[in-house]
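> example.struct
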């Protein structure tokens, strides 16, 4: 089977990376698991194309000018939605399309989200009838997911140094603005002046005063760790470092790291605390939603094969 990157000819500059699944086993050597920032969207694309779920996809913040398919392929766009056209014909987000060898994919304006995933599978590697696979739809995000918070808040667990904060609940009372100082390693937050009460709180600072300011020995961090720095909170994302020396006040639950990866700088976000038991139920529900998508693909393949 050809490497995924060999299937495409990418022309023009942009901000995009080939991302696969997490790579565990190297954190003791300083290597984070990394991989796709929004793992749910990434895995969704691979499931729709009947690929191994850790096969790499193109993660695009700013897409290239054009992408030409070297071979006949099926592809799908997931994650943040962006206008796309295959040989000048509009491409529906979350819908599998069949591209001929030499077909050209171009992009327009971003509709929502921050990271878009392009999953590709050559027709020669697809077990189902590619003609039937063309047009298979994931469905709207809200229809195929039951795990996101209904109020749109990001859920967190208490971190090891949450007691270092004089008033931990202040973190949940304020809306937070995602600053431009963001990368695949993490995002920096600032208290946001949204509403009169929040404006007065933001004017007085973020309110996350520490009860002690002693130096900490660097300790392990994970995806979603919220570190309290002198310049404000930082939320670590998938390409984070493996240790850190700032107080780890909270940890974003793993499912919601996927959501946070779709928040662009300039967006406001609110957090809310949850229990470990609830976090585990949310993780299980996310896996169940992916399982339902696999079943949908299996049913479709069964119908196509007439078995």
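> example.seq
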């Amino acid at each position: 089977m050809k490497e995924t990157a060999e299937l495409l000819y990418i022309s023009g500059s942009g901000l995009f990376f080939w991302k696969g699944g997490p790579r565990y086993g190297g954190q003791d050597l300083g290597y984070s698991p990394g991989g796709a920032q929004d793992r749910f969207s990434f895995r969704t694309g691979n499931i729709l194309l009947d690929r191994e779920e850790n096969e790499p996809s193109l993660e695009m913040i700013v897409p290239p000018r054009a992408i030409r398919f070297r071979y006949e392929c099926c592809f799908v766009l997931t994650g943040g939605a962006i206008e796309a056209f295959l040989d000048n014909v509009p491409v529906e987000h979350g819908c599998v399309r069949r591209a001929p060898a030499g077909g050209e994919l171009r992009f327009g304006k971003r509709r929502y989200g921050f990271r878009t995933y392009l999953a590709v599978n050559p027709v020669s590697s697809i077990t189902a009838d590619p003609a039937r696979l063309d047009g298979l739809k994931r469905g709207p995000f809200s229809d195929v997911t039951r795990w996101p918070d209904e109020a749109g808040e990001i859920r967190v667990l208490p971190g090891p140094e949450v007691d270092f904060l004089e008033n931990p609940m202040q973190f949940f009372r304020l809306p937070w603005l995602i600053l431009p100082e963001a990368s695949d390693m993490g995002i920096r937050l600032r208290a946001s002046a949204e509403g009169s009460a929040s404006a007065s709180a933001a004017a007085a600072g973020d309110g996350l005063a520490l009860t002690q300011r002693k130096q900490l020995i660097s300790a392990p961090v994970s995806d979603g760790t919220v570190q309290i720095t002198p310049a404000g909170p930082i939320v670590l994302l998938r390409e984070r470092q493996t240790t850190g020396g700032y107080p780890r006040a909270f940890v974003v639950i793993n499912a919601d790291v996927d959501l946070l990866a779709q928040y662009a700088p300039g967006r406001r976000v609110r957090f809310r605390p949850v229990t470990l038991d609830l976090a585990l139920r949310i993780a299980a529900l996310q896996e169940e939603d992916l399982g339902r998508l696999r079943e949908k693909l299996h049913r479709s393949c069964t119908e196509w094969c007439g078995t």
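> remarks
The helical segments are 39-48, 130-133, 141-144, 170-173, 196-203, 254-260, 276-305.
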